[in-house]
Amino acid sequence: MPYSVISGFMSGIGVILIILQIAPFVGQPNPKGGVLGMVQNLPQLLSNINPAEATLGILTLAIIFFMPAKVKRIVPPQLVALIVGTVVSLTVFGNTDIRRIGEIPVGLPTIQMPTFTSGQVTVMLIDGVMLGILGCIDTLLTA
To answer: Residue 77: pLDDT above 90?
Structure first.
């Protein structure tokens, strides 16, 4: 595959991921409709910014991009951003309405045997093939 095809493909995925993170960054739930729904609802999202969640997002990006290279060799900036963001959200924004992951369940779930219809199996096979193709293209990029 030519470099321009792979580069365009990977750049397109990157742009899609960035667009899909705009709503959580400003403290809003993701609108339905994927990328098109996000772009259509962008003015509404930007007019209803949650200041606490947006501040945590800006703090996280600042830590990731502006951490000195010497410190990056010792500890990943993403880990530092996670720890600092958690501490700030619990201390500074403790009484604020912030969407949080919540409590993580302890223990193993109960065992359930899955049941699939033939239509679901077809969808899973097609999606699996598509993910495999995308993985192959991504592997070509690093090769």
So the answer is: yes
Read off the pLDDT band of 70 (50, 70, 90). very high
Mean pLDDT, residues 75-90 taken together: 93
Tokens 């899909």, residue located: 20
Q: Cβ(52)–Cβ(98) under 8 Å?
A: yes
- The structure's pTM equals 0.65
Return the closest-CA partner of residue 98 out of 44, 46, 24, 36.
24
Per-domain boundaries in the chain: 1-49, 50-99
Measured in degrees and rounded to the nearest 5, phi and psi for residue 68 equal -60, 150
What is the C-alpha end-to-end distance of the chain, expressed in Å? 11
Cβ–Cβ < 8 Å for 60, 81: yes
